[in-house]
Amino acid sequence: MITSKSKYTQFIKSEAKRLGFLSCGVSKAGFLEQEAPRLEKWLNNNHNGQMSYMENNFDKRLDPTLLVDGAKSVISLVLNYYPESLQVENSYKISKYAYGTDYHYVIKDKLKELLFSIQENIGEVAGRAFVDSAPVLDKAWAAKSGLGWIGKNSNLLTQKVGSFYFIAELIVDLDLDYDFATTDHCGTCTACIDACPTQAIVAPYVVDGSKCISYFTIELKENIPQEMKGQFDDWAFGCDVCQDVCPWNKFSKPHNEPLFNPNTEILSMSKKDWDEVTEETFKAVFKDSPLKRSKYTGLKRNIDFLK
Q: Where would I find the 4Fe-4S ferredoxin-type domain in this sequence (predicted)?
């Protein structure tokens, strides 16, 4: 059995690496003081649009001890999804994170394995795994634990690998050695703000979610407002523009997670192929894909809007 706090921390980080995570950082579970007024202001400005779930569990979003009894540590992990190959030119675009298997399944399995390994080697540790489907401010926790800084496009950025990765957490009732936040390296750069097709980055570090192409093509369930016509730059599911133009993403390296390998059909599809997708084909090609989230009707709506 492993006994000391620093050995626990070391063990958890090496296990995270073994499971394929890009990096792992730890912070003390507690109330996110700086985030509280920021989140409140963002919600008051209706930057969440119709994502009403962002208004729920306000307190839990800011305090992980309300999610896990006796929580002492937030273990933040990032998993690379940057693909080796991209879609063909002149196609309707989908976010790179949606090329392969839905990340919720992939990461949940890794987190369960990590928690099991902690319990097996350290002892009785209670905890919960989170992959962006619960009220956890994952970017804030990842930044607090030194995994990167939150950039002007509100994504977590790192100098070594940019921002094409998923963030997840284990919240546990175990005391660990805590990491320190890193510094901001956005400097005077405004590439993401200047490039956003719908001007959704309304101020440095502030994204109006209700103006974001990802919001319109994934979250919005009703018709896309006509005034947005011609502004989507052929994005049919999500949008990567603010990441694609970020200078730090010059350092992105292809992932090594087989489950994120793209379905070759998706990468080679032309606009004509997308137009001709039937519900049957959609179910077959995208059965384990994040695109399932928009459903066949949502994808068709998005593509029709782009014409």
A: 177-206
